[in-house]
Amino acid sequence: MAQQPEEQMRAARLVKYKSPYELQSISIPKPGPRDLLFKVGAAGYCHTDYQVWEGVYQSETPMTPSHEPVGTIVSVGPAVDNWQVGDRIGALLFRHACGKCQGCLKTKNEGGRTDLRFCTNVSMAGIKDDGALAEYMIADASNAVKLPDSVTFEQAAPLMCAGATVWGAIKAAELKPGAFVGVIGIGGLGSLAIQFLKALGHPTVAIDRRPEALELAAQVPLKPDLIVDSGSKSACKDITSWADNEGLAAVIVCTDDVPVNEWSLKLLRIHGRCVVVGVPTAPFQFSAFDLIFKELSVVGSLVATVEEAQYLAERAKLFNPARATHNKEHGNPFLSPALQSSDTVYFTVSDSEGNVASFINSNYDGFGTGIIPRGCGFTLQNRGHNFSLDPDHPNKLEPRKRPYHTIIPGMITNLADGSLHSSFGVIGGFMQPQGHMQVLLGLAIARLSPQEALDAPRICVAARMLEERVEDWTVSVEESMPEETIQGLRDLGHQIEIVTGWDRSLFGRGQIISCSLDPVTQIPVWSAGSDPRGDGAAYPAI
């Protein structure tokens, strides 16, 4: 606990509704046992502040406005144990729940703790009580978030209300990955909602009829996929057509324009969700036909919880429109996220008509465009490694060139009629061509079932540099290989290394689907297998 600063501070005060704020000298507030006193570093101003200025909430005057504050703690209440002087803080709107009203009791019974947002007697900074347009401000320690050092006060302040509001709305929309979303009303809230949705990978349409709002939508760092003037006669058709001709999974209404709320339902697909965060003074209007025949949901969203707001603040430090990824090191691919979390996946699927797909996706070494397909959380295949810029090198970089150990999704057809025998793939770096050959031999020569072919022990000739002698190469052998086979390899002069346990992942991971004719009925019979050396499964989808 630090000493209380001087007794007086400057503050912008609302003295009379619809009149200019007055700069006054007032007493610095004294923190209670569970409070934090912080020096304001930045404070935002949102539409609610404008409504307070108009007198919509009948706030008592004089009062200090603003409820989007961030700053640095200068004093900590004696009952606070998770904050200290010097911490960078963002304070949310609500303070000091009574713990006795229906809202407090209900939320504590349901969630295990009191949710300040629903307390009927709660203090609200800048609305019912003094806010942030001052040198110092009080925060409730239970409803504040710690700011990362990399996020400036100017960046963080809008997140404390506008950001937290639309973040809560996005959570309330219950979106599935890749869902199409519309944001109606592109102001402070809407512009942030667009960027949050794009950062989450959602196709997003920005909707407004004001020229300045449409211009703002086109200027935000993470731009929407579509910008639509809601005053256009074809607006609804254009949006529905863009959203796969089904409509939007959700709309987030950030405007107080009442007619927009009814119009927004026409944009939704079946079981779509309209999340309302704009606060008009007039009653809402909705079409019962839209609600019933598409089984739509209309939900309100107040503001994010303190836990959600803390998560938002932590994620904010990762967003930088000037960088494709938060930890990319230019000129050093070995520090790129693609290498740090590189991985490869193989799958094969078939249908009852005999159509089959064999697919490998591999991310390795930060090579390639880094494009993320819509609705997916991974980049497109980028496995292009070990090329050389030396024009005389056998693996020189040139158009349509494939690296020696490239990804190899495979299929086998029957020689007699070209019909499908098997769809298969083995992943694992330099093991891929070796694994494919060994699995293929098991299927075609040893007549093993898909699972038997994958279970069979493998060998791997370790990758070496061209200048190394072949005699120095090591042959890795899986521990379940028969002893006579191992000894036979040694007799041929190979250096043998027995690989056991988890290290057996060296031998790759594969999946197989095979098709054969029943010898009696001549009906195609499908069989499949999944490699025990890694995650995977083989199952029918009926």
Automatic annotation (TrEMBL):
Boundaries of every Enoyl reductase (ER) domain copy: 21-335
GO molecular function, one term: oxidoreductase activity
InterPro entries hit by this protein: ADH-like_N (IPR013154), ER (IPR020843), GGT-like_enzyme (IPR052896), GGT_ssub_C (IPR043137), GroES-like_sf (IPR011032), NAD(P)-bd_dom_sf (IPR036291), Ntn_hydrolases_N (IPR029055)
Pfam families: ADH_N, G_glu_transpept
Domain of life: Eukaryota
Extent of the signal sequence: none
PANTHER family membership: GAMMA-GLUTAMYLTRANSPEPTIDASE (AFU_ORTHOLOGUE AFUA_4G13580)
Official protein name in the record: Gamma-glutamyltranspeptidase
Lineage, top ranks: Eukaryota, Fungi, Dikarya, Ascomycota, Pezizomycotina
